[in-house]
């Protein structure tokens, strides 16, 4: 099964030297799931010719806001709506989670409650899973067709499922602790409150359930879909 990675942002150069860029992280996360990958740098306006060019689509995180005016935002929203209508499965992570929601009628904004950083617990229908987070923006109003799959005290719409058409997660299962630590030392300085970063740093090293989410992403992509 060929998954197209729609790259909407990139890792800081100094961190990418060790961790690779976002598509590399997703390929490592899903390495044992029997999937193949092709990357499209949509942030540079490199879009697939058609929503059927791959068997599924994965939209990465980004430092950009879904509500900001960047050249790739509107074309990406149109692509999302076309993929949704064509029943080509989509997975969105962080920015990907947000832009899918926005494209399908939800609302994304810079959350006045601040940032979520580092290992964070989420309630997936009674199952507590810990994942690395790095965001201030969040989905504050979900699209009508979406159902909440996970929440936290900080983020009501932490994961959403759109039938068999999209599965999206606000947290970053692809982020390892060393990458989060690097983000705190690079992008976090002067942006994320020092006290919050210190608390997040103290949680690094705790168990992260990234492979649980990897298995759910793969299962979602591979689920049988009949023609409706």
Question: How do the helices and strands line up, and which of them pair or pack?
Answer:
Blueprint: E1 2-6, H1 13-19, H2 22-29, E2 36-40, E3 56-59, H3 73-85, E4 90-93, H4 95-103, E5 107-110, E6 116-124, E7 127-135, E8 137-141, E9 147-150, E10 159-162, E11 166-169, H5 177-185, H6 194-203, H7 210-222
Parallel strand pairs: 1-2, 1-3, 3-4, 4-11
Antiparallel strand pairs: 5-8, 6-7, 9-10, 10-11
Helix pairs in contact: 3-4
Short synopsis of the structure:
This protein has 228 residues and is α/β, with parallel strands linked by helices.
Relevant terms:
228 residues; alpha/beta; Rossmann fold; 11 strands; globular; transferase activity; Class_I_gatase-like; GMP synthase-Glutamine amidotransferase; glutamine amidotransferase; ChyE-like
